[in-house]
Amino acid sequence: MTRNRMGILFFTIALVGTAILPQDTEAEAGTPVEPPRAVSAMWTNGVYYEGKVVAEKEGQSLVKWADGSGEMWIANDKIKESVAGKKAPANARKVYAQWQNGYYYKGLVIESKDGMTLVQWEAQGDPTWIENKHVHPRTGHKLAAKLIGDRELTAAEKKAEAKRKSASKQEDLIKYTASCSQLRTNLDCMRTYDPCTWRNNRCQYRGH
Asked: Which of 57, 69, 101, 122 is the right S-S partner for 30, CB 3.0 to 4.6 Å?
């Protein structure tokens, strides 16, 4: 191959590459969505969070997370409509639903579809999409007591818990009364922040 033909070949390759590059970049960026669409999308931990779709490409949407943590391409089957402002009806079904820490908490069912249930937590927090297998009726659930994070303790359990706290408080009193009394200056005492405090010209256990 002559030097002239080699030059033509390299020029052609460069020209083709230049023509292809913007198309690849555009495909990677996707098609912008204006205005951005509010959604609830599944993050890598399997939990749905609020965000906005800012771009789309085949089978995926670019979600910008509402908490400001960035953006991520999410498969469209992992995206649902936004749950912001959604509330359970007055006659909502009461359930125990599993939160991401593995424990079950009280909630109210807003709606169910596609194998998922949208749960409004009784304690606090935004509604969350939970897999149906992790949602159980409040009564007859057959969940182990240790798995329920906010259940009402029985009378016997309350008594045992009160006894445990009393014993712990007594242990702290003995331990910290001795350690705090060894601190001789106000500065050293206050540096502990907790459990010691400077009172009556000496360092004492704060006594929670």
From this structure: 57
